[in-house]
Amino acid sequence: MHVVVVGCGRVGSGLARMLRDDDHTVAIIDREEKAFRRLPPGFDGQTIVGVGFDRDRLVDAGIERADALAAVTNGDNSNILVARIARETYGIERVVARIYDPRRAAIYERLGIATIATVQWATERVMRRIVPDAGEVEWIDPSAKVVLVERLVPRGLVGRKVAAVEEEALARVAAVSRLGQSSVADPTLVLQEGDVLYLAVGGDDTGRLDEWLASSATKGGGH
């Protein structure tokens, strides 16, 4: 697989190294030649000096044969512009853009551009650990039709099987985390206090799911 990486900061250089370690071909673009010093000794990928949205530089990087592109500079506007060029001009399906503004990230996710919003990700992860039922979304697909949410098992569901939760919640339990160890959900697994569920649910159904879980906490989950 050939991958174009735009931005040779800590993320871009680390990504380029990992891709080469996995025997993928890599071309990395950065406006500053000195940025390539972050690459490991002996890095044999292609390095190109220039701005990532310069189409001549993208062509030099092999975008016409690329299977994927990652735009990971420190500028939202540059990353989105590069991502859109890759998707709309060159038809690359695997495109990821690093976006610092979580509101903009959500917009571009709905346009089919996968985004990594660093601050948002860290904030949500901390929030879920402090308030496990904070209602944050763990993952959303580019069409916003399916989301994966992380929810603490309410007391009313303790002692019930995963299959019962799926039937009543109208959501798929993808995985269960217990005592810090996660595993793919077994429909026959009996839930325990402190378990965390990872549920796949329709994008418009998270509110209904949370209402059901809240009801389960007070009414015993439909017993």
Query: Could you say what the CATH architecture of the largest domain is?
Result: 3-Layer(aba) Sandwich
Strand element count: 11
Structural domain count: 2
Percent helix, as a range, is 25-40%
Return Rg in Å. Answer: 21 Å
Number of helices: 7
Largest sheet properties: 6 strands, parallel
Structural class: alpha/beta
| Shape type | elongated
Oligomeric description of these chains: single chain
Low-confidence parts: 130-134
Strand order of the largest sheet: 3-2-1-4-5-6
Average pLDDT for all residues? 83
- The CATH superfamily of the largest domain turns out to be NAD(P)-binding Rossmann-like Domain
Classify the beta-strand content into a percent band: 25-35%
CATH topology of the largest domain: Rossmann fold
Measured between the Cα atoms of the first and last residue, the distance is 52 Å
The CATH class of the largest domain: Alpha Beta
